[in-house]
Design goal:
about 180 residues, mainly alpha, two-stranded antiparallel sheet, 2 strands, about 45% helix
Length: about 180
């Protein structure tokens, strides 16, 4: 099989592209495949800006959140960097760490659907692992305490309160 781009060399790479349900197959030689890897060209193949990761992310956010964000609404703007939610959707990049908080209502459903959880689950840096684990335990116990009080399980609430007190005493100076 001959390369679809240069029409000279033997095709060793086989590429399938599906955009909006339209499937196109390409047979490429090693040299042309390297050029494609830099996302430069392919005949009638658009690897340019319209299919960049950022644009895909913006479309994914609309799809998962069910288009709950309407352009007609007042645009949400990050108080820290001044980036609007519409700008984020357009370029797929957040301006600062505060943007995660400002756009939380629209980002959390997407993150939860893609990753299964909003909380980080995984390795923790060794220097901070014990403090992070203690903070997580403390937050979990406080949630359990609130639930126990709401359900009027006062004995259980007292046990949880004692565990919280113990955990605070064990931690550095009672502060978490």
């Amino acid at each position: 099989m001959i390369c679809d781009v240069c029409k000279k060399n033997k095709a060793t790479v086989h590429l399938t592209q599906i955009i909006n349900g339209v499937k196109k197959e390409y047979n490429l030689c090693e040299n042309c495949a390297k050029e494609i890897n830099t996302m430069s060209f392919l005949p009638d193949m658009s690897f340019g800006n319209e299919n960049s990761f950022q644009n895909v992310l913006g479309g994914l956010i609309d799809y998962i959140s069910g288009n709950s964000y309407q352009i007609g609404k007042k645009d949400i703007i990050c108080k820290n960097c001044g980036m609007s939610y519409q700008e984020f959707k357009d370029n797929g990049l957040l301006g600062c760490s505060q943007c995660y908080t400002e756009f939380k209502e629209y980002l959390n459903p997407v993150v939860k659907r893609l990753q299964g959880s909003i909380e980080h689950i995984g390795k923790i840096p060794k220097k901070t692992s014990s403090k992070v684990i203690q903070k997580k335990k403390l937050l979990k116990l406080k949630e359990d305490l609130n639930k126990a009080v709401a359900m009027e399980e006062y004995e259980r609430a007292a046990e949880i309160r004692d565990k919280i007190k113990e955990l605070k005493e064990i931690s550095d100076g009672g502060e978490l």
